Amino acid sequence: MSDETPPDPRAATDGGADVEDADDVAIDPWGSSTIADYRRLFEQFGIERFESALEDVPDPHYLMRRGVVFGHRDYRPVARAMREGEPFAALSGFMPTGDPHIGHKLVFDELIWHQQQGGDVYGLIADLEAHSARGLSWAAIDDHARDYLLSLLASGFDPEEGELYRQSTSPEVQDLAFELGVEANVSELQAIYNFDGETDVSHMQSVVTQMADILYPQLEAPKPTVIPVGPDQDPHVRFARDLAARVRYFGVTEAYASFELDPEERELVAVAHEHREAYAEDPERPRCVEAAAWLADYETGATTVRDRTVEKLENAGKEPLRPRVRVLDRNATEAAFEALAEAVDGEKRVYDAHVDAFDLSYEAAVSLAREVEIDHGGYGFRPPSSLYHRFMTGLTGGKMSSSVPASHISLLDDPEDGYDKVQAAATGGRETAEKQRELGGEPEACPVYELYAYLLAGDDDEYARRVYEECAGGERLCGGCKEEAARLMREFLADHQEKRAEAEAELADLDLDLDLGVADGH
Ligand code: TRP
Ligand code: SF4
Predict the structure, then answer these.
(1) Domain locations in the chain as residue ranges
(2) At what angle do helices 303-315 and 288-296 cross, to 10 degrees?
(3) What is this structure's pTM?
(4) Which of 172, 351, 481, 483 has a CA between 20 and 30 Å from the CA of residue 295?
(5) What is the pLDDT of residue 518?
């Protein structure tokens, strides 16, 4: 960690494996929103650490610098587009089940930051999900929807540059959901979300709707798109990445002969091809059998893969081993496949359901395949990327929960109540002032420090760092520290609410129907 960066609050919410639901294997988007063990997200679910992408990001947001944004999937294409001034998008959704609170503010800020970096940014109200998965009435949904939108606007979202919508009134999203639903079946939803025979159909429909939300920014044209969310939403992100690939017209792989290889096998064949001088009678035309004989003696830890690969090579007999890029027909129309075959430059071989190209790079084949797909009416989706932020610890020490008012600060809380809640918050302090001076406090286990790091210090890294160091060094005592935070919270809420009032007019100008509940009373 560099000198300018304040201490990373991640330890505060790392929880350790002893917290509740440590043994759950699935991440459940409709379950508790605590993530017991962030490490498992990396090891078991393959989320990447955000640190690894941070250096690619121009002028990162403080939530990124401070490790509040801790993980990502495939964020690099988004960062690259940002750096190179190419189009990119960001989208997130909010379930209107209660008041927006300071945890949601993180996501607002992430969206707004991407908008300021030049992205096309979308915010949506997940009202179909709130109605089907949470059973909220449409009248309640309308009220909460309005509150989320006002807070998003008050936080700085520019509705002229970006787009706000609600799931239930977007025909584009619903049509796309229907289309994506063709590729998703019930067993799969059961496996991903623990759905069972009792799960209602509308809840399933809300899942394909979320898939459509995630891909909606690419409907006009494919572009790198990031979905900033809590890690509980990762199953949705993975599924959306999967569906995005399934509707593609073509798949692109690298091959060496007529048969298909998995990535491990491909690596070995690449080694064999590289060593062709060592065994081929004619190194210009190494034969598959020759490569097989050489590879059979190749030292590797992965002997099963090797044996499998050797067998494939043997079966291909005298066929020459020759690197090529293969474009496979997945969902292409006949016309699209023909157009692709036509468009491949240089030496090629056209089969029933694939084309082998000998003079095309992998990257060139990928963009060609996307171009042809789009020209022929396909989506050409790029797999959506994601960012994951830490959940804030509740002010009372446990998890922050919308149903426990003292545990969170609503963006609608009276500023004085906000002040009081911070004053009453749990801390990472010692039992006595003396001990605190002697041992220092524990900012990494302190919900009040989190308030500074996630929100109250704003962009001022130096301030967040000072709070941390003064606390850990025993110079800062909890009474004064909470007073300072409580005042900042009061100020923040008063300011936010003033901006909400100003945003009323902006909201009224938007073409959004916020009175769905009036007519039907469900
Ligand atoms: N499922 C999300 C939640 O529970 C809400 C949501 C709906 C969403 N569509 C989305 C989030 C698309 C991100 C992207 O809060
Ligand atoms: Fe938390 Fe502040 Fe007390 Fe440190 S001094 S433990 S940061 S309240």
Answers:
(1) 38-247+383-389, 250-375, 405-511
(2) 160
(3) 0.89
(4) 351
(5) 66
Distances (CA, A) of 510 to 127, 160, 478, 504: 17, 9, 45, 10
**In sequence order, what E strands does 341-402 have?**
348-350, 354-357, 385-389
Contacts for 267-276: CB closer than 8 Å, 24+ residues apart: 268/295, 268/298, 268/300, 268/302, 268/305, 268/306, 268/309, 269/295, 269/309, 269/313, 269/321, 270/323, 271/295, 271/298, 272/298, 272/313, 272/321, 273/321, 273/323, 276/321
Ligand closest to Cα of 385 equals: 1
Mean pLDDT of 182-193: 95
Measure 30 CA to ligand 1 centroid, in angstroms.
11
Does the domain formed by 38-247+383-389 have CATH 3.40.50.620?
A: yes
Question: CA separation (Å) from 113 to 55, 160, 366?
Answer: 17, 15, 30
The radius of gyration of the chain's CA atoms, rounded to the nearest angstrom, is 27
pLDDT band at 10 (very low <50, low <70, confident <90, very high): very low
Among the bound ligands, the one closest to the CA of 235: 1
Q: Which CATH class is domain 405-511?
A: mainly alpha
Give ligand 2 pocket residues (Cβ under 6 A): 427-429, 441, 443, 446, 448-449, 467, 471, 476, 478, 481-482
Predicted confidence band at 400 (pLDDT cuts at 50, 70, 90)? confident
